[in-house]
Specification:
alpha/beta; D-Maltodextrin-Binding Protein, domain 2; 2 domains; five-stranded mixed beta sheet; three-stranded parallel beta sheet; 34% helix; 20% strand; binds glutamic acid
Length: 307
């Protein structure tokens, strides 16, 4: 993201937090990130080896993992502008995975990568894997691999609290609707709702900024992301209508590194079984108001042993 974009994104989050603090009535969600004490610590599998994975071998000899994430998605992938600390459900998934791959917490580095740059970042080795509301689909599978899914979201709409006309994507004709370049919701908006006026930015926080300042009538992306923004500014923002797609979240890995992909599939299942997944969800994404669902079955595509 360009510097001005990053500054704007930080400003938006700060503005949303301030708004929420100023307008927060009793019972409204807390504006802070997850409480560290409610987060599980993940057991590091110190004896873990994955010699068949070029990505794992390179990370091991380098001494740390670099994971691509988001930094402006409340309760999912959020960077505290003051401390630089990342938090959220996707960050917890990234930590669980690194522990299973044998990397201690101090050897995990995050790198913010926008939706449009995920495939390139994985292809050119900037990151070892990516955890950031990344929908698994066949088009992307031509460029990267996916472990998971570890959660299923759905495309939805975020509008201002004073909006009465938008109840679903059918009401978007002639309206300016913001989404993010390189995302599945932008693609679906353009393809299935061509009468809407699509506006694209690099990040959802810039879209929310545009919504709060009446530059656009709605923001569209996954309900998880939109609920986070709405939970932080409940007097300003609300979701409209029902989700209208399925967005299975995967962990992006370099294409062809099947050993890494399948090791992460095993790790996801292990952390779902031992309760880490639910604890992490409750401490993060669960705080935007939706109780933990049953996690979806992982899809070991191309191996003949899917779920
Ligand atoms: N899950 C959707 C996608 O992967 C939207 C969220 C995002 O842009 O990260 O494109």
């Amino acid at each position: 993201m360009p510097r001005t974009g990053r500054r704007l994104a930080a400003l938006t989050l700060a503005a949303v937090a301030l708004l929420a603090a100023a307008c927060g009535k009793e019972g409204s969600p807390p504006v802070k990130g997850p409480r560290p004490e409610s987060l599980p610590a993940y057991t590091v599998d110190t004896g873990f080896r994955l010699p068949d994975s070029p990505t794992w071998r390179a990370a091991k000899s380098r001494g740390h993992l670099t994971v691509g994430v988001k930094e402006d998605q409340p309760y999912l992938g959020e960077k505290d502008p003051a401390t630089g600390v990342y938090s959220g459900f996707d960050i917890e998934i990234a930590k669980m995975m690194s522990a299973s791959l044998g990397f201690a917490p101090g050897t995990l580095a995050y790198r913010t990568i926008a939706s449009a740059n995920r495939e390139t970042a994985l292809q050119n080795g900037q990151i070892d894997y990516y955890v950031g509301t990344y929908t698994i689909n066949d088009l992307r599978k031509k460029q990267v691999g996916f472990a998971g899914p570890y959660y299923i979201a759905g495309q939805s709409l975020l509008v201002r609290k004073d909006e009465d006309d938008i109840h679903g994507p059918q009401d978007l004709a002639g309206k300016r609707v913001c989404s993010v370049a390189g995302s599945t919701p932008l693609r679906r908006l353009r393809k299935d709702y061509p009468k809407a006026v699509a506006v694209a930015y690099d990040t959802y926080s810039i879209c929310v900024d545009n919504l709060l300042s009446y530059q656009v009538a709605a923001v569209t992306t996954d309900d998880t992301i939109l609920m986070g923004f709405a939970a932080k500014a409940p007097d300003e923002l609300k979701l409209a209508g029902r989700p209208f797609s399925e967005e299975p979240y995967g962990i992006g890995v370099p294409r062809g590194d099947t050993a890494l992909r399948l090791a992460l599939d095993d790790a996801i299942e292990a952390h779902e079984r031992n309760g880490d997944w639910k604890k992490a969800y409750d401490a993060t994404l669960g705080r935007s108001g939706v109780p933990a669902p049953k996690p979806p079955a992982v899809d070991r595509y191309g191996t003949g042993r899917s779920a």
